[in-house]
Amino acid sequence: MTLTDKFKKLTDSLNEMKSVVIAYSGGVDSTFLLKAATMANMERILAVIGISESLPDDDHEVAKQIVSMLNVPHRIIKTEELKDEKFSTNPRERCYYCKTELFCRLKEIARKENFLHVLDGTNADDVKDYRPGRNAAIEKGVRSPLLEAGLSKKDIRELSLELGLPTWDKPAAPCFASRFPYGENITAEALDRVKQAERFLKGFGLKELRVRHHGDIARIELVPDEMAIFADKDKRTETVGFLKTIGFKYVTLDLQGFRSGSLNE
User: Fold this and answer.
1) What is the pLDDT of residue 8?
2) pTM
3) What is the DSSP secondary-structure string of 183-241?
4) Which of 174, 216, 221, 253 has its CA 20 to 30 A from that of 111?
5) How many Cα atoms within 13 Å fall on the side-chain side of residue 81?
C-alpha cells in the first residue's frame, strides 16, 4: 500500500467516525492524527491534553500551541497515577494502569458530551515493542486509526513534513516513568530528579538522551556520536557535580548509547 493510500484510508476512517475525543500529547503521532482529523470533514473534534508528574513540564504548553494553530478545541486534565500503588510500585505492566486511568477519563468525557469515539496515536511500529498500555486501549474500546491504516513512524514523519507540521522531526518523548527499572518505586521526588538531570544535559546542546534512574545511580544514555562531549573534563566535572547535588551518588555513561526502551531489554 502506498503512502497516499494509507493516508486516504486514515482520513476515510476518521470521516466515518464523525465525532472524536483524541488523547493528545503534542508528539509526532498525536499531532499528525489531530491534523488528519481536521482534514477529514469530521463533525466534532476535542483534543484532551493530560498532564502529570510523569510528563515533561513544558509538553502541555507546546501541545496547547499546536491545537491553537490547528484551530481545534482542547481541554486539559490532570491524571494522578502516582496515587495508584499499582503504578507507583512499578510492575512490568505499569503503563497499563496509567493508560487505564487516562482512557477512563476520556471515555467519561465522550459519554457525557456525546462524542462517538475515543482515539489514541498508536502507530504500526508501536505493536512491535512491549507496550502494556495497548491492552488498556483495547479493553476500553479506544481506537488507534494510525495503526488501523498501517502507518509506521517513518510514514508519519514523512507525511507530517509534507503537511508542514512542526513535530515532523520531534524526538520521541516517553513519560519519565520509563526511566525507572521495573520494581523500583516511582515517586514525585525521583521523577523530578530525572527531569532536572535531563534538562541539565540538554543545556549542553544534546538532543536525544535518557537518564535512567537506578536508585542512587544515574545511567546516562547518549547518541554514540555525542558521547565525546564527556572527553571534556570540565563538562564531566560539571555533570557529576550537578547530578550529585540533586540526589545521585554515582554517575555513569552507558557505552551502548541511547536506545529507546532499553529498560525493556
Assistant:
1) 94
2) 0.88
3) TS---HHHHHHHHHHHHHHHTTT--SEEEEEETTEEEEEE-GGGGGGGGSHHHHHHHHH
4) 174
5) 30
